[in-house]
Amino acid sequence: MRYELTRFPLVKAVLKNRWPQLVVYTVMLSGFLLAIMDGLVGTPVGNQNYAIVFVWIAWWAILILAAVPFLGRGWCAVCPIPLPGEWLSHGAILAPRDGKKPWLNLRWPNRFRNIWSQNITFLLVALFSTVVLTTPLVSGGVLAAMLMVAIGTSLVFERRAFCRYLCPVGGFIGLYAQAAPLELRVKNRDRCVQCAGKPCYNGSAAGYGCPWQVFPPGLTRNTYCGLCMECLRTCPHDNIALNLRPFGADLEKPSRRMDEAFKAFIMLGAAMIYALVLLGTNGTLKSAAYSVGSLTWFGYAVGSLVFILSILPGFFWVSVRMGQLLSGSIDPMRHAFAAFATTLVPLGLMSWIAFSLSFVLTNATYILSSLSDPFGWGWNLFGTAGITWQPLLTTLVIPMQVLALVGGLLWSIRIAQKVSAETHITPLPVAIYATMATLTMLGLIL
Amino acid sequence: MTTPRFYWLLFELAGLVIAFFPLRLHFTEPQEQEFRIYASQYAYSPAKLSVNPGDTVTIELVSMDVVHGLYIDGYGVSVTADPGQTARLTFTADRPGAFRLRCNVTCGALHPFMLGKFQVGTNTLLWRAIGLSILTALAGVFLFKPPSQIKTA
Q1: Interface contact B125-A279, CB threshold 8 A
Q2: Quick one: B69 and B42 in the same domain?
Q3: Which of A81, A294, A299, A330 is the most buried (most CB within 10 A)?
Q4: What are the residue boundaries of the structural domains of chain A, listed by start?
Q5: Mean of pLDDT over chain A
């Protein structure tokens, strides 16, 4: 069941035209550069600094509570981080120019054409996140570093190698984009077979070849499509559609990739650890997570890595193996493990939503005050600088969190049943695993 | 004759009962409760307070390092203590449930995450949530069963 949004001429015209996108890009890039500057020179008090408040409260809320669940990679479509590098790499800001590409344009090494690098970059950020999320100088430095790496990558490698293979945020957005009710797909693959030159991948005068290194006719999942709309511009046969679809449509056909499976464990584990450290009451744990370089921090880091990379996958492996033994399945364990890991996508997404609701609604009033005084220098641009901190919707937060987690559990068991139909392995042990994970999150949040 | 839709209806009814059935778990007379809480970056000690509904609660907040505050979600009451000083807050715990204690004075980098818990009566929401999760898991396992699985199970 699909509903094509690009059937409306106005929608299609807006998406194909580069100017609306450029306007959004410009706003986003300005905000991003302001966040970097603010982090570096603004007040060191996190909850009064725009870099912290706008990036880790406002942007994060929009990303995890709205953009990812409903638009999938919608954020990637307007993300400012790859822009300067891409403009340099293209030698143009808008449409392609004729002539030789000005930079190296090397192909990303085959060995690294997976999301293991993104798993590592996310884990690195996660281990330092208590400092990154609360210390403006570090936050600004991390944002600046991401911009620099993105520029460097664009000058050396072809297309959006940074977004596709390195961005720590892009990795999990891709994973959870599978759950979103929005997709970009070709309308008729037969038409693509006959298409000469494949401009959607190779580019043409109308636009760039897919910056995300995806061959659009082969798109079956949202994971690696950045919704940049280049293929909509380059397709000479009007064969690209942006569709509305049921939630989680991509999860019907489970991935068998181990890098994606581990991304699911990393995200679920990180949500649990964040809930324990940041929403818990244990001050020693908070201090350990914050004291980067200290012995206690190493303990926290090692404990987190062991939990995320060994304990969570280990119990999951046992669950899948038990299912295999109970069902007498001959499906290779590695395949079954990776396929069943798809069930963690809704569970992880809903865990992140539940976790984020807590601190986003609690700290939302800081957005208004930092809007008036972004650097914490005593300005009052919009008369909101003096707004007193007040947590919002405190009585609704917990019921919403419970609904999110219970809904995520039901959704993940549904996916487990579908994976079961493909692998012929009973989903019962995985359903128990998902239930235990949900109960753990409930215990941490309530 | 029973159909999957019938079972779904049963599960949904059970879910509604778990979520909303009124529980009367409070049998004690209201009392006066006093707590002395030590606040330091970024924790309260003790971090968890439990009282009965109707109790008159007095909190003495002692700040051990910088200025700290204590705000109670759901009650909207707060108190602030200067370093080395003690501040008092008295109120009636007339809303049952589990609430967060939060520092409401910027006290350092992890200030937004300086939290405690205030429980009035039994934390029924937690038990309801656990019940709903288990019910959801049962419903998911037994009602979503695909045809291919019927043979192997």
Answers
A1: no
A2: yes
A3: A81
A4: 3-177, 254-445
A5: 94
